[in-house]
Amino acid sequence: MRIVFGFALALLMSPAAGETLVERGAYLANSVMVCHNCHTPRGPQGLDLSRALSGGSQVFDEPAFKVTGSNITPDKDTGIGNWSDAELKRFLVSGIKPDGTKVASIMPTAFYTVLTARDLDALAAYLRSVPPVRHETPAPEYRIALRPELPTYAGKQASEQELSDKLARGRYLLTIAHCLECHTPEGPSVVHDFAGASGKGGRTFKGPWGESVSPNITPDPAAGLAQWSDDEIKRAITQGIARDGHKLKPPMAYASYASMTAQDLDAIVAFVRTLPPRN
Ligand code: HEC
Ligand code: HEC
């Protein structure tokens, strides 16, 4: 009986039956990792999905660099149509391009080191499957030779098997969704103070929406989410509605997270509740 139950559980947790690599990649790219947030142009109505992944509208202008989300469609001249799968997969976990140069740390590769072998295959398969769009994005400008690196938060590659554990799955999803990149304050000497203040919030985001500041998402009783119910946290993530009912501003991609599976959303909320409380 026990063996049968264990087997049934394994089936339940294994990748959705019949899900192809391209479908898995689409789910990761569109619902969890939200590549569009930086790589798809924005029009007056929001993201222009008719030119999906052909290069972002936002310019990241910092002391160390000035960059825009690249064209990552398979267009051979202006996109990544000439990259091999191996080059793309290496890039996703290292930020190193086929020509050996490293991209600006705005591209969250520091969080992608945990990606399972299957999820890397899935992302590569999906990126190959999207329509090529010809669109030249401005060349990156790197202003100082030694650019600050994101401190390693993510850790080493996860295995598919680990993801059948709810909390491990939540940690994995929270990592590749780079939630803590936005919800951790800048440190005194490092870009993000993950060691001292993971999840404490306090980063400011400026854009067409004006200004938003990331809140504390640790279970701290006063400053964080301790008083929130699971449903309230899920409503904030997927609908952008705060506990008191007010509408939350971008750049968090609420509408994309709304297409996450119930199982993945449960896992994220369960893991968020285990973050060390900070105030
Ligand atoms: C927070 C913003 C952000 C997110 C989210 C993001 N990227 Fe990027 N990405 C960038 C920026 C900015 C660059 C260009 C950096 C540079 O030129 O130094 C980049 C560069 C790249 C490149 C290199 C392309 C080239 O021609 O050099 C690839 C490939 C890429 N991203 C794929 C992805 C994929 C796939 C996802 C989702 C799984 C993703 N990115 C999510 C910001 C982002
Ligand atoms: C690109 C940056 C960014 C990313 C990525 C991001 N967030 Fe947020 N998040 C914000 C900002 C900014 C706000 C506050 C918006 C406002 O106050 O209008 C917010 C609000 C929230 C809230 C509401 C909390 C409150 O007190 O109102 C929760 C919960 C939350 N985020 C959880 C998450 C989780 C979980 C993830 C990953 C799945 C995530 N966020 C990814 C920037 C981000």
UniProtKB/TrEMBL annotation:
GO MF: electron transfer activity; heme binding; metal ion binding
Keyword Nucleotide-binding among record annotations: no
Keyword field contains Metal-binding: yes
Keywords, alphabetical: Heme, Iron, Metal-binding, Signal
Domain Cytochrome c: 13-131, 165-276
Signal peptide: 1-18
InterPro entries the record matches: Cyt_c-like_dom, Cyt_c-like_dom_sf, Cytochrome_c-type_DH
Gene3D superfamilies in the record: Cytochrome c-like domain
Protein name (record): Phosphomannomutase
Highest classification ranks of the organism: Bacteria, Pseudomonadati, Pseudomonadota, Alphaproteobacteria, Hyphomicrobiales
